[in-house]
């Protein structure tokens, strides 16, 4: 997943002459700093929407430098149905699937232990059904 945002931070189009230009990297860094500052110092709802606010502020910062292009909005319909597989067929990488399965097993084990501990603390019987429901919720 990392190659996509890294390419976007460098301008998006790897064939462009100015790919990786400092203006793109500076805008990406500015946007990231805004998001991190809101996440660190924000309170309540603002902290929860730090990513959206950061993207909005980054877009506003891009406009004066000509880095925001809204021309596609002129011809876009107000509402439309999504196109399935618009970016191509999905790709399945066995190594990624296996690693995520291992991560999920670890997380499920941790969650189960937490539910059992809470059951002991609350003096409430924790059976298989309760753990199953908790894992589905988690």
How do the strands and helices of this protein lay out in sequence?
Blueprint: H1 3-9, H2 22-41, H3 44-48, H4 50-62, H5 71-75, H6 94-121, H7 128-137
Characterize the structure shown.
This protein is mainly α and 138 residues long. It folds into 2 domains: 72 residues, no CATH class; 44 residues, no CATH class. 64% of the residues lie in helices and 0% in strands. Helix 2 packs antiparallel against helix 4 and helix 6 crosses helix 7. The longest helix is centred in the last third of the chain and has 28 residues. It starts with a helix and ends with a helix.
**Main beta sheet: strand number and arrangement?**
none
Beta-strand share of residues: under 5%
Global Rg = 22 Å
Order of helices and strands: HHHHHHH
- Stretches where pLDDT falls below 50 for ≥5 residues? none
Multimerization state? single chain
Give the integer mean of the pLDDT values: 94
| Global outline | elongated
Number of strands: 0
**Number of DSSP helices?**
7
User: How many individual domains?
Assistant: 2
Q: Helix/strand/pairing class, anyone?
A: mainly alpha
Helix fraction?
55-70%
Ends distance:
24 Å
């Amino acid at each position: 997943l990392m190659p996509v945002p890294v390419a976007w931070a460098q301008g998006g189009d790897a064939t462009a002459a100015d790919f990786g230009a400092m203006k793109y990297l500076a805008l990406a860094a500015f946007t990231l700093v805004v998001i991190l500052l809101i996440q660190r110092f924000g309170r309540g709802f603002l902290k929860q929407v730090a990513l959206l606010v950061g993207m909005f502020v980054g877009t506003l910062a891009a406009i004066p430098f000509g880095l925001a292009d809204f021309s596609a909005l002129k011809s876009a319909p107000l509402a439309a149905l999504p196109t399935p597989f618009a970016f191509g067929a999905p790709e399945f990488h066995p190594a990624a699937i296996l690693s995520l399965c291992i991560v999920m097993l670890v997380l499920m084990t941790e969650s189960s232990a937490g539910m059992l501990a809470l059951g002991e603390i609350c003096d409430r019987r924790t059976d298989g059904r309760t753990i199953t429901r908790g894992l589905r919720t988690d």
